[in-house]
Specification:
Layout lengths: L2 E5 L3 H12 L4 E5 L2 H11 L3 E5 L7 H10 L8 E5 L4 H10 L3 E4 L4 H106 L4 H4 L2 H36 L2 H4 L2 H11 L4 H8 L3 H15 L4 H10 L8
Parallel strand pairs: 1-2, 1-3, 3-4, 4-5
Helix pairs in contact: 2-3, 5-7, 9-12, 10-11, 11-12
Amino acid sequence: MQRILIIDDNITNLRVAMDYLEAYSFEILTARSGESGLRRAQEAQPALILLDVQMAGIDGFETCRRLKANPATAAIPVIFMTVQADSQAVVRGLEAGAVDYLPKPIEAAEMLARVRTHLELRALQSRLEERVAERTAALEAEIERRRAAQAEKDRLLETVRQQSEQLRSLTQLFLESQQARQQGLAATLDDSVRQEIRLLQESVRAAARAIESAPPDPATASSLPYLSQATQILSHLQSQTAEMAANLAQSSAEQQQVLDNPLLKLTEREREVLQLIVEGKSTSQIAEMLVVTRGTISTYRRRLMDKLGVSDLAGLIRFALENGLTGAAA
């Protein structure tokens, strides 16, 4: 049962409309003035209002304007009833917020048809508003979910960037430290150890010469083969020491080559820009992804070319391919 409020100061008109609509199972409320109609509309929240234009006190036009100005009653459709069926009165009623009008004397069948039409329209509007609200809530939830996912992605990316920068610094520090140790060991082998071996060789040779020049003595003569063997062993040790020093020096050169790799000297943001360039992203796309200006990306690109010793974009991509930059195949 849908509730309809009839506002009319004419008791006869009220009775006719009320009896007819009640026969079609509508719940009818009545008010005899604009002021009382405003109060009843706010309290009862009818589904539709039939409003007479000519009433004592505030007229129907003013009553309708006040109904529409009140958030509690603004959505209730108003059909005004008037004997002023001229276009000016109709326009005034519609401008006041009414959805339709009924000319007096009222034709019962026409009144029923218009009432049903506007009740159905309001029901459709309510369902549409519900669906819009549901869809809006679903979209807001999806936007929030994506925002949270993007925030988590950004957090993880920032963590990866920081770890990557730390790893780059630690790698460089480790290589430099290892290179220094190897250079120190190579210098020790080349200087101290080989020097000691040379001194031993000279002492062995001097002992052999002393035995050979001394009067013949079977006891001392028997030691000459051992001295000769010791000389050979020392010569072999000297060769091995020289080889070890050379290998250590070669390792340091290889480590220096790693340290001199331009990719290791790039900043985290420079490597990120290079990665995106290699993946085929345009300057505008990179600027949007990194939330910077296009001019900033152009500056990064020029800096990359200077550091990597290339002159154009193709050179940047070729350098990344040759150095196995992750994602370069894309």
